[in-house]
Automatic annotation (TrEMBL), chains A, B:
One of its GO terms (biological process) is regulation of secondary metabolite biosynthetic process. This is Fur family transcriptional regulator, ferric uptake regulator. The lineage of its organism: Bacteria, Pseudomonadati, Thermodesulfobacteriota, Desulfobulbia, Desulfobulbales. It comes from Desulfopila aestuarii DSM 18488. Keywords: DNA-binding, Iron, Metal-binding, Repressor, Transcription, Transcription regulation, Zinc. Zn(2+) binds at C81, C84, C121, C124. Fe cation binds at D77. GO terms for molecular function: DNA-binding transcription factor activity; transcription cis-regulatory region binding; zinc ion binding. Its cofactor is Zn(2+); Mn(2+); Fe(2+).
Amino acid sequence: MQLRMTNQREMILRELRKSKQHLTADELYEKVKKIMPRISLATVYRNLEILSEAGIIGKLEVSGRQKRFDYEVEEHDHIYCVVCHRVDNLEIDRESIREVGWNSDKGYAVHGYRLEVAGICPECQRKRSKKEKKQ
Amino acid sequence: MQLRMTNQREMILRELRKSKQHLTADELYEKVKKIMPRISLATVYRNLEILSEAGIIGKLEVSGRQKRFDYEVEEHDHIYCVVCHRVDNLEIDRESIREVGWNSDKGYAVHGYRLEVAGICPECQRKRSKKEKKQ
DNA sequence: TTTACAAATGATAATCGTTATCACAAATGG
DNA sequence: CCATTTGTGATAACGATTATCATTTGTAAA
Ligand SMILES: [Mn+2]
Ligand SMILES: [Mn+2]
Ligand SMILES: [Zn+2]
Ligand SMILES: [Zn+2]
């Protein structure tokens, strides 16, 4: 019932935390491979699942794309770029949003919610305006 | 630039509207096949994409699962069941939630947001309590 | 009303992210 | 030690979606 900190596990966790980003399994695989060249992609998937199951990391399923894993585990919301799919934390006051409430929950036993804000990240904005100038 | 209302297209749209549910492509495929037995699943996917692109139906990408299509196109939020993945509309006052705002958007040009509430639907609650009694 | 062209369809292959399988290699705990 | 988990790497399988392509259908001009 308690999780064993294998070398692979530790390295995956370390690289995710070091990145301070919301990485996909294969982005993390590429990073870890530089240190442990023999690691398997399956091991990365497996351990990300185990680590998030154990509440050590977070798992994000943002807008129908690849899963991303979060170095931070406290409840918080995210903003993502509709162009490059980068994900950032959204510093929003969860208390005040909770006050809003919902007036019809269709009889659901509510577990929680997820606020997903979409937009274009600064970098993609720059790239876009460059392109426009060319035309 | 203008979309042709083929028989297949029309039937897909009609069945989605008739259902008043948030259906997946293959759920819709099964429904339409009863009326047009020769229709291809690819045609269903293709036309759902075209119809949502044209703003005639909505496309939902809820929590990393199959896409669902929405007979209603106006902006609204959803609640889904973590057990059976059923999706329902969530009647929440979007104006008041908008007032909350976010104090750090990391320089993003915000397009919009999506509020996804998770819980267990009435039916799954019933099934669960039945199971508990058995044990 | 033929003829040309564009668009849509059905069948199926290919793709992508993820999971499952399985033989082999650690680690654990008497 | 030895037996028993547990984890690993390689790879196959999977499910949802998308791409391809030969054929059919619709549109519209000649
Ligand atoms: Mn985060
Ligand atoms: Mn809806
Ligand atoms: Zn971006
Ligand atoms: Zn349910």
